[in-house]
Amino acid sequence: MDKDGRRVHIVDSLHLSTGMGHLVVNAVEMRNSGKSTQEILEQSESMKKRISTSFIADNADYLYRNGRVSKGVKNICSVLMLHPVLFLKDGKISLKTLKIGNYGKAVKRYVRGELRHNGKINKHRLFITHAGCMVRMISEIKEEVNKLCEFDEVIVTKASATISGNCGAGTIGVLFVNND
To answer: Which among 90, 80, 53, 79 is positioned nearest to 167, based on CA atoms?
Structure first.
């Protein structure tokens, strides 16, 4: 309860489930260390702008089914083995880039691309979020992350229905917080 007697405060995270998870876990850590409600709210507002949320999809089939790409784009992605990389900004999912080739190798290139500016990344926590990926692939991604950047904590989570339904099985993302 804050000094005004309120127990609930609403923060629009502008993120999906794992991005919200970053905010919630941070808020709990701050509360446990004795921070005030106002400090937690201010930190949450600042932090939500620094959360990097991106995903790579195995193919464009689900994006086509949900009207996010045309049939022509879907077909080109299939023929050329292109894998869409999506990112979240200001509460909206957009296409960031495309990775080409074998999906396992494309995922590793995606992870390397996301973590390439690791001097800007807060090394406290990284989430690997997936939509039904094989255990082996998740282990390989964790290995790739550990080669590139040493985080205090790496948490593996299952993707929300939003990402799973819009991007399909095998979609995987890395989510972290950038420094101020």
So the answer is: 53
Specify the 3-state DSSP secondary structure of 97. strand
Q: Is residue 40 scored above 80 in pLDDT?
A: yes
What are the tens digits of pLDDT across the range 132-160? 888 999 999 999 999 999 999 999 999 87
Give the CATH number, domain containing residue 107: 3.30.1180.10
Position 154 in a domain: yes
Average pLDDT over residues 101-127: 94
Into how many domains does the chain fold? Answer: 1
Picking from 9, 36, 21, 69, the residue whose alpha carbon sits closest to that of residue 173 is 21
Give the DSSP H/E element, type plus range, for residue 32: helix 17-32
What does the angle CA 50 – CA 16 – CA 40 come to, to the nearest 5 degrees?
50
> 2 is written with which tokens?
């804050």
163 alpha carbon, distance to own chain's centre = 10
9, 143 in Cβ contact below 8 A? no
